[in-house]
Design brief:
Number of strands: 12
Distance between the termini: 80 Å
Largest sheet: 6 strands, parallel
Shape: elongated
Strand content: 15-25%
Mean pLDDT: 91
Low-confidence stretches: none
Number of helices: 12
Helix content: 40-55%
Order of helices and strands: HHHEHEHEHEEHEHEHEHEEHEEH
Radius of gyration: 23 Å
Strand order of the largest sheet: 2-1-3-4-5-11
Structural class: alpha/beta
Length: about 350
């Protein structure tokens, strides 16, 4: 017991006497300190006293679709830190092939009596996926916040990067460089952010008097290998530039260009999306559209904390503007540069 008191006291930065008062339910301790002590117990792996176990509501589920794409660990770091600052302990749940499903994770989180769930990607963004687990959360009135776009029928607060602005930045950059045969490498056909990006591309192209050839639109899973395979088809269709819906897809596109005996950006320009870790260290450094991860993550946590506290928050989608980061993977169309 004394060892537990000492470890928790050191973790929180309070005296052992204060920790003892919290564990014994005695007055004279602020709510913030009390929450911090209980969170420290969870983090250190200690069981709470029986009378405090009903207060596991300081746990918050953080559900990610994967960790292979570096954008999701980046979101987890921001969101996890913001949750901890507000006295919550994040419970990280990550889907893996053949592993625990998103629905099973939701059941697990409900069993842990979490006070809310934050999804940083998931099936809520795909029209043809099973959405019953989300509706189960809604029926229980559990606070939930979604990162990035979802299907319209899910009435949860959403914090999103503006897909229309992102596509306008990426496609506009390539059009300004003289490219007209621009390939679009997007996510699955029923993926809401990809739908938005495709619609924005058609609108912007029309304003420039350009028609997007259907052969220059490819949909794939969000992996380097899928991006490479889809990019082969774009190159066969005559693409001189490729806009990708993620950085791993862009890396797959660069590999496809090189396997075809061409060079980036001399022969084909490539634009990614996310500006995830190390994209400035690739060869060539990747031109990409940067998601504002820090403000998005903190806004999502603020919304969730407000809901947990009983506040009524807006269900309108909160849009954040991305930023085009121009590096070495894009260049003027060769014919335009030599005319």
């Amino acid at each position: 017991m004394s060892r537990r008191l000492a470890e928790v006291a050191k973790k929180v930065g309070v005296s052992e006497a204060t920790v003892s008062r919290v564990l014994n339910g005695k007055p004279g301790v602020s709510q913030a300190t009390r929450d911090s002590v209980l969170t420290a117990l969870d983090v250190l792996g200690y069981e709470r006293p029986t009378k405090l176990r009903g207060e596991r509501g300081r746990l918050v589920g953080l559900v990610l679709p994967e960790l292979a794409n570096p954008i999701f660990p980046a979101f987890a770091e921001v969101i996890g830190g913001a949750l901890a600052q507000q006295g919550f302990t994040p419970v990280l749940c990550t889907r893996t092939a053949g592993g625990i499903t998103e629905s099973e994770y939701i059941d697990l989180l409900l069993g842990q009596q979490v006070s809310g769930v934050l999804f940083a990607g998931g099936f809520y963004a795909q029209r043809e996926a099973d959405h019953e687990p989300y509706r189960r959360l809604a029926e229980r009135n559990l606070p939930v916040v979604l990162m990035n776009a979802s299907i319209e029928s899910l009435d949860f607060p959403r914090v999103s990067c503006d897909d229309v602005v992102a596509m306008n930045q990426a496609l506009g950059h390539l059009l300004s460089l003289g490219h007209r045969r621009i390939g679009l490498l997007l996510g699955p056909t029923d993926h809401i952010p990809s739908e938005r990006k495709l619609a924005a591309a058609h609108t912007l192209a029309a304003r420039h008097g350009v028609t997007i050839d259907p052969a220059l639109v490819q949909h794939s899973q969000y992996s380097l290998e899928s991006g490479q395979a889809a990019s082969v088809r774009l190159l066969e269709a005559g693409a001189t530039a490729i806009v990708c819906a993620s950085d791993p897809l862009a890396l797959g596109a660069i590999r496809a260009v090189r396997r075809a005996g061409k060079q980036v950006p001399t022969d084909v320009s490539v634009v990614g999306y996310d500006d995830s870790a190390l994209m400035n260290s690739t060869d060539p450094a990747l031109t990409t559209v940067r998601q504002p991860i820090e403000p998005m993550g903190r806004a999502a946590v603020d919304l969730l904390a407000s809901m947990i506290a009983g506040a009524d928050v807006s269900r309108d989608e909160l849009l954040f503007e991305p930023e085009l980061v121009v590096r070495g993977s894009t260049a003027p169309l060769r014919s335009a540069a030599t005319d």
